[in-house]
User: Fold these one by one.
Assistant:
Number 1:
Amino acid sequence: MISKPLARLALVVASATFILPSAIALAATDPAAVVRNYVNIAHAKYDDALITAKALDKAIDLLIANPSEDTLKAARDTWIKARVPYQQTEAYRFGNPIVDDWEGKVNAWPLDEGLIDYVDKAYGTESDENEQYTLNVIANPKFTIGSKEIDATRITPELLSGTLQEAGETESNVATGYHAIEFLLWGQDLNGTGPGAGTRPATDYDTKNCTHGNCDRRAQYLKAASTLLVSDLDYMAKQWAPDGEAAKAVLADPKKGISTMLTGMGSLSYGELAGERMKLGLLLHDPEEEHDCFSDNTYNSHLNDAIGIDEVYTGRYTRLDGTKIEGASLSALVAEKDAAIDKELTGKLDKTLDAMHAMAKRGETVEKYDQMIGDGNKEGNAVVQAAIDGLVDQTKSIQRAVSALDLGEIELEGSDSLDKPDTVFK
């Protein structure tokens, strides 16, 4: 099911003035330093995402060379680890066009998996919205898209990114990124809102004992997607290096840079995470609206999004190797203007994180996210709703921080799921 396009929520904030005593003004937090720290953390996060993607690529090589339940499990475990630093980058997406224009290559969802590989008969054979709904590239070395004949005898990164990604201008034709790889490692989750994730067998890659056919081509696709993921993350890590285009764009004007930071926090909090990724699925009780739907890893992805939002505000990040990055922060900047608003926002960020950690703990000990949002599961629904409420509430304080900093007008992503919930059932 395709989510409705995000609505735009315009926020117009009133100007505010605050005159600091000269002694305090001398020690004031420098907005340029806040933005530099934001850039440094972005570079570190995308570099960590790249490191984990390279580890995933190696695990995939081992799976392809020696298909077994052990090598498949190792690749799956490495995929889950790779999601952690990437999800913590998502607050950089909104407000940074370089990131937003690129993001679909690595994290687009939901996807129509019939484009890629075999699917269960319950998936159906056609869709009014997608001509490539059951194209099954892995099983078909030649096919047409529109009026163009495609030679897919060899499945390459170029085929995935240049031909298949959003084929026919259809957003659900997701051929690249984390979720295409996830599908190829787990297969479809056919359990609805019941227990269990995807159960693809390792023999789907075993050319000597092949299940479901085309094991060599399935391996080609998986390797091509993994190669692309590494390449795409390498590109983005370079954009946030000191001489990178994303870094230069946000550093050029510190005041705009601060606005970008708050835009990213607010848009991810409200429209994207609380709305499109969480409230929509909860309203519909639909496991197809689950972000990491094949692996049942969604609660971890949502938690790491929330952690990333908090890190933008606090200006702190701990790298995979334990290195701590900390510097001038939005929190300090807001506190100098209005200590009460900083305390309010910090408290709400903490409350949201508590709700997200509670959801993740439930995901590890009681039931997975797709079960939590199931119809009639009052307790599970309430756990998810508490996290949504925290995200919505912290967005209100983000708006207050924008006002305190006298940043003028900014735009945050909205969501029909939050703003016009009745429309999602039409």
Number 2:
Amino acid sequence: MNLSNLQPAEGSTHNQNKRVGRGEGSGKGGTAARGHKGAKSRSGYSKKIGFEGGQMPLQRRVPKFGFKNINRVEYQGVNLDTLQSLVDNGIVTDTVDFSVLVGARLVTKNELVKVLGRGELKSKLKVTAHKFTATAKAAIEAAGGEAVTL
């Protein structure tokens, strides 16, 4: 082995690309494969999301209307018939809380839960959720259960 046949160890190098902007002798000097002038040839260039080459972008062309409340709280709805099916399938017996709903994949761990009043509940359940509709709360209590707000 001598200096003329040195090479890196097998598997130690991954990038086989030609290095640009390292002088004329490399074959990729001068403009460094960026072409001449224009925004893309400049250092620090980054295209804005939705940029259409100077044409008015779609996001600005479409008319906007209405009102988006930035303080709106989104709840994931779970109906009474869904809770009843959990009981029928033997997943729950007496208490339904957030961890049970996450385990049954009805909600994700970052969502807020609201129990809705569709269907009927035959079982006596202690239901814990962030919110209840009036009909759901009445139905749970009519079945002998308890509605606990988080």
Number 3:
Amino acid sequence: MIQYKIHPPIRLNQTVQLPASKSISNRALIIYALSGGRILPENLSDCDDTNVIVKALADMPDEIDIKAAGTAMRFMTAYLSVQEGQCHTLTGTERMKHRPIGLLVDALRRLGADIAYVDEQGFPPLRIRGQHIEGGLLEIPGNVSSQYISALLMIGPVLKNGLTLRLTGDIISRPYIDLTLSVMHQFGSRAEWTDIDTIQVSPVPYRERSYYIENDWSAASYWYEMMALSQNEDDEVRLQGLMDGSRQGDSSVRYIFSLLGVKSSFDTTEPGTPTTVTLKRVGRSVPRLEYDFINSPDLAQTFVVCCAVMGVPFHFRGLSTLKIKETDRIVALKTEMRKLGYVLHEGDGTELYWNGERCERDLKSGIDTYEDHRMALAFAPAALRIEGLKINHPQVVSKSYPHYWEDLKAAGFDIKE
């Protein structure tokens, strides 16, 4: 097992070239392929999750192994369903074979897709025979992973009758749905919310075009966390390639961290223009943080670690999807935060809260990462306040932020294996 021991820098003063957005890269790749696949999007993410889609679209082998990439599994399931005359098996890691996909498969089957389970019903691997699909009206719950909804929306323009998608019940992660619609629009599709719960996708084919991908606000969150945990008023971090007014749901990180005393300044606020965001510590933190992460669940780990280490009690809601991520993130957070000396409590599987309860710290075994990139990414900044922090299996960051450890070293962190 690889284990990193992390020592913080005396000062934090660094310019960081963030990775490209994984969320936008993966959407743009599927739409690029559906548009004819001749003009590859620029500034693609170099993370594992994007690389498996790039490889799959380039090679299109009989068996496509998307490894641990949940986004790729969902998006490729829909994409392969409309590739007439082709037949592929879509598989992944052991963990992927236990991540549910039945809801998406059922939805695609109702539209006319030919998909069979290779092993256990409701889970990958899948055998997909691509064919002509009519489309039409489809109802699915709005409280499932937005990636199911995005997968369906993206194939809408190539269906004979387009797609009318009605979302029932509560709609979670709405910003990710809007992000999908935004990328679709830029490739010439006509896809709009026609009611509070209904999206209409017209059967208007995508247009080929050059497309530039902005950098990743999710990756930015870990540098915000470092700035919040920094205890030097003169520290400063500059994050490159972000956009003001971004469609990325995790861009909300700038507002939430303002409550913890971190100020964001943009070099330019020109819409759609990548720029540099400067982070500084100003003012004090709120005494307690309550927040609903229903629209940005991937930020939860960042704020759980950050708030506890800062000594800020919290109550976080909207965490239902954390149980079906790379690991059960609620269980993982409760377990690993105890090692740092913090006792978290869970409420009905959708909430986590910390009221200041402490336990004895035990750092001997290191922080386990559970094959989950965001566990390593979110816990590493805690080294700024917790001496002797160790991260197990640190290589998991390649799933979304491959050069994270190099960026930390460049910022002055001492990382020893």
